[in-house]
Amino acid sequence: MGDEAHLASSRRTGLDRPTPGPASTAAPGEPMRLFVAIAPPAAVLDDLDVLTAPLRTGRQDLRWTSREAWHVTLAFLGQVDEVAAARLLPRLERAARRHHAFRLAFSGAGAFPAATRANVLWSGLSGDRGALARLAESVAAGASRAGAPPPDKGRRFQPHLTLARCRMPADVTGLVAALAGYQGPPWTADRIHLVRSHLGAKEHPRYATLGSWPLCPPRTG
């Protein structure tokens, strides 16, 4: 796959389908469930998807997430009203302009709260985690100023990509071990997305991108 995964001519993920704005996706006064995320390139997700495919067939007791919706969350904002959502847009654009693009890679795996009684199975990240944490901090600060503070504000940021959720606490020790040695292709995080999540009773969440902003070009030298 080469030293770095490159974006193909098709979409990256289901997050890369922007809609005109918050007002177009919500009835007046209706709160929206929002988060801010990074969408990895399609080639990177394909590599991880190939690795996890045989694991999914062996653990149908888990609720595996859809590859089209895979992303790295920077800040979960919860229910946000229309006024605060409108204020978010310039705040997030400003936050993006303060940061340079940086390199990441998916690596290893883990579980929340623990592999022996997991609610969530995830893939971790390596690379410039410091830049990722600083970007997440700027996003959370901008959201707070817009009137949409993250409900988990103050909690330690632990970047990950959610692979599966467990309907009941489950032992995923074997899955974590199977993914422990994984080191995915490196990629450049160069854009943030504001996303609305529509929860269904049985189906996977549906995502609508309300806005997308580029980071500054990577530092050189």
The overall strand count is 9
Low-confidence regions: 1-11, 19-25
Order of helices and strands: EHEEHEEHEHEEE
Question: Under the CATH scheme, which class?
Answer: Alpha Beta
CATH architecture: Alpha-Beta Complex
Average pLDDT metric: 89
Structure description:
The structure is a single chain. Helices cover 26% and strands 32% of the residues. The chain has 221 residues and is an alpha+beta fold. It has one domain (32-202): Cyclic Phosphodiesterase, Chain: A (Alpha-Beta Complex), CATH 3.90.1140. Helix 2 runs antiparallel to helix 3 (129-145). The longest helix has 17 residues, at 42-58. It is globular, with a radius of gyration of 17 Å.
Question: What is the topology?
Answer:
Layout: E1 32-38, H1 42-58, E2 62-64, E3 72-80, H2 82-97, E4 102-112, E5 118-127, H3 129-145, E6 161-170, H4 173-179, E7 187-189, E8 191-198, E9 206-214
Antiparallel strand pairs: 1-3, 1-8, 2-6, 4-5, 4-7, 5-6, 8-9
A few lines on this structure:
The chain is of the alpha+beta class and 221 residues long. It is 26% helix and 32% strand. Strand 8 (191-198) and strand 9 form a beta hairpin.
Keywords, separated by commas or semicolons:
221 residues, alpha+beta, 4 helices, Cyclic Phosphodiesterase, Chain: A, 26% helix
